[in-house]
Design goal:
The complex is a heterodimer of chains A (114) and B (114). By secondary structure, chain A is an all-beta fold. Chain A is built from no helices and eleven strands. With 114 residues, chain B is an all-beta fold. Helix content of chain B is 0%, strand content 51%. Chain B has no helices and twelve strands. Chain B is globular and about 45 Å long. The relative contact order of chain B is 0.34. The chains are: A mainly beta (114), B mainly beta (114). Chains A and B meet through strand 5, strand 9 and strand 10 of A and strand 5, strand 6 and strand 10 of B.
Chain lengths: 114, 114
């Protein structure tokens, strides 16, 4: 089975801090994704990556950046955390760009910015 | 662009009741369709999928049929259990937009009472 591992289940940080959320997948997938999930807003795509060192903006990239130095690892960075970034963050991966490929999700990181 | 619309929740049922969660989509080409489930405090898990018209996806007693004529992929279960209480997401990928990205519905919360 595909395993997508997010480094923390719960995280508490302070306003203005630089925050790193880490995600690792073990199935050699090409694509990796970062979402945030908020009540009433569903899942919103922040950034995604098709390959090492490649990144594409999703629907809500403002205030975030990403890094993909190795194929298995995709990091989400909050450059200067703000309270409106308190949310559940979900990482996902799938094998390639072709249609019909489900995404495999990690357990999520619940981030609180105080 | 592509989109997915789900019935609003919460849906509250008694144990052993019949479940239907409606999902309709808008897409060009021939997308693949998915249902995901999210249990409290966890990430999303793939529940079932269908990749072409008239396909029926099934898993754990849940079923959904890909209906191209009505652009629908409704989720059904004949007899729900308390353990089915979760949030259910309908999603699509592919079609003419072959990027590996998923388009999600807003999610439908299901509460099953004993």
């Amino acid at each position: 089975d595909v395993k997508v591992t997010q480094s923390s289940r719960y995280l508490v940080k302070r306003t203005g801090e630089k925050v790193f959320l880490e995600c690792v997948q073990d199935m050699d997938h090409e694509n990796m994704f970062w979402y945030r999930q908020d009540p009433g807003l569903g899942l919103r795509l922040i950034y995604f990556s098709y390959d090492v060192k490649m990144k594409e903006k999703g629907d809500i990239p403002e205030g975030y950046s990403v890094s993909r130095e190795k194929k298995e690892r995709f990091s989400l960075i909050l450059e200067s955390a703000s309270t409106n970034q308190t949310s559940m963050y979900l990482c996902a991966s799938n094998p390639s760009r072709g249609g019909g490929q489900p995404q495999h999700f990690g357990d999520g990181t619940r981030l609180s910015i105080l | 662009g592509n989109s997915v619309t789900q019935m609003e929740g919460p849906v509250t049922l008694s144990e052993e009741a019949f479940l239907t969660i409606n999902c309709t989509y808008t897409a060009t080409g021939y997308p693949s369709l998915f249902w995901y489930v999210q249990y409290p405090g966890e990430g999303l898990q793939l529940l079932l999928k269908a990749t072409k018209a008239d396909d029926k996806g099934s898993n754990k007693g849940f079923e959904a049929t890909y209906r191209k004529e009505t652009t629908s992929f409704h989720l059904e279960k004949g007899s729900v259990q308390v353990s089915d209480s979760a949030v259910y997401f309908c999603a699509l990928s592919g079609g003419s937009s072959n990027t590996g990205k998923l388009i999600f519905g807003q999610g439908t919360t299901l509460q099953v009472k004993p």
